Amino acid sequence: MTVTPLRANRKTDHLDLLESHAIFILREVVAECERPVLLFSGGKDSAVLLHLAVKAFAPQQLPFPVMHIDTGQNFPEVISFRDATVERTGARLVVAKVQDSIDQGKVADPGLMGSRNRLQTVTLLDAINDNGFDAAFGGARRDEDKARAKERILSFRDVFGQWDPRQQRPELWQLYQGKVNPGEHVRAFPLSDWTELDIWQYIEREQMKLPEIYFAHERDVVLRDGMWLAVGPFVDPRPDEKVERLVVRFRTVGDANCTGAVLSEAATLEAIIAEIVVANVSERGATRADDKFSETAMEDRKREGYF
Amino acid sequence: MALAVKDLLRLATVGSVDDGKSTLIGRLLVDTRQLFDDQMDAVAAASEKRGVGDLDLSFVTDGLRAEREQGITIDVAYRYASTPTRKFIIADCPGHVQYTGNMATGASTADLALVVLDVAAGLKEQTRRHLCIAALLGVRSIVVAVNKMDAVDWSQLAFQRVVDEIETLSRQLGFKSVNIIPTSALLGDNVVEPSRNLDWYHGPSVLEALEASEAGAWEHTTTQGARMPIQWVLRQPGGGRTYAGMVCGDSLHVGDKVTLLPANIETTISAINFGGEPISEATVGLAADVDLAAETNAGRGDMIATGPLPRLVNEIATTICWFGERPLNVGQRLRMKHTTKVAPVRVKTINGIIDIERLDVDESTSLYTNDIGLATLQTANLMVVDDYRSNRVTGSFVLIDEATNATVAAGMVGRASFL
Question: Is A193 an interface residue toward B (CB < 8 Å)?
Fold first, then answer.
């Protein structure tokens, strides 16, 4: 048998260790839980997560489905990336729509332009219940936010989907235990210890594909509350706002009406990495209106069951 | 852009409440420019709102609402820092005794403990307790920031008094590397930048000490052979099966003679894969999958090992940190998770409680919340274990409440050398 010297002549680096740790977590949760699911938005973090899941179980098929919580306010490039990726990996895609939660009267309709960000929690928890999922993998990283910095890798949720930051299970060594009683579930975050830079370096190393909107392109944008929003079906320029055509890219991908673009010429992975190394504003600070409601916006949403 | 290959150092902060752990981590992140402008603005705004001055650096890591309201750390915050050659994962641990389980969570994977203490207060009981837990958990290197030097007028005498205390305890606990540094986290002296107020001190700053310490100590504590607890069986095209797991202790190579345990089958590694690609060596920390020459029906919970082999036992002498709200008593049934195996256990005997002050064992028949004690456990299945002192992966376990699934104890096979 020929042995490819994949790792020969190369020292084990921090990316190798992060990668193996994530693969280890994916396998533990699949082994311990009955019905896991991987939350896949088409963003870079969940793309890395899915890539790692494929590696963890190769050459077998993924032993769990992937699920997209669809707010209906997506960037079209992200949806086509989602579909292409799911097809390439042979994963089964479950789509849970916020619109359905609105139609069923479970949440109030914020209108076409209104933010559906917080409504996602209801859709997510219903989808977890309806499908009987007892574990949900997410691509959240601890460097994103101070509440996320506090969360365990396997994070217990009660029957209401709530996270209680004061009652987290001790999580020692690499002994992840995901057993829950009926109705409860765990969120599992294999990328907990990755930083934004780690993610990009890994994407470059693995030659991964991403939605085009992560790379610099020309787009019509308006400046609103200090953020460049893409003009489109979910963002109408207000009378006092000037539409400008600028070269931008997105550092994170969320809903089209609360994710800001950054002014950037970085059109390649190499250029993006160079930009992040010297960035002086955080990824969510630069681009996410949903975190700006209050000092503890993320903690408050997480307690309710958010991603 | 070519970035240098980095290694990875995991560290946990250790120390009593109010000695300045969170402030020191905040200072470390600020002075190494790991914090973004918007994060700094948020810290400034939170400081102003609570009337604690211009910039309370503890708000960098104390991110929960309750923590900021009470000015304490409740649970571990993970923060990340990078220098050109090293990535740091920092677990900022709580100091209060009721959050010992959270502190142990942060310290269990640490290569190094960063101890922060107040020079005027010296070694408090809680700091001794944390150092004792860190030593029990197998941390062998400590960097000690003797903090708040500004409050004692940068006195070398005050510093030296604390140094003597720390050195005595460190010898007892058996730390291998001890680096004691006078600091002022508040003013930034000797955290990243050298101090201008401490002309009598010529050693490294905290960051310099962290950069010089050994990375990957967590994975490499073993003095024994390679181990791979089987996590999952992968079916290969054509009908074969490979065994997936993370390698610890030592590397595995194609051609290595191994033993499958507990079945005790001697065989050879015929192939190793990573992510579906063949490789020749699985280094420590790699989540690989291996093929064995012999036909076996191995599965999750079994272990592949090279000699000297681990022990096969159904009665284990252990050291236990008990986090349960109700006491642990003889005869109690629990579930044990050890490597990738979950099995029922029964407490056969409780052999005493560790007295943190005297580092000795007192008699007791129960363990109460946050006690560290010695207990002998009986297991329903044959377990494959190493002493924790020789392997932190195959020597560790957690105990789980059968009704609630809560993790109620952290356990280690064997007994610490200092007892």
Answer: yes
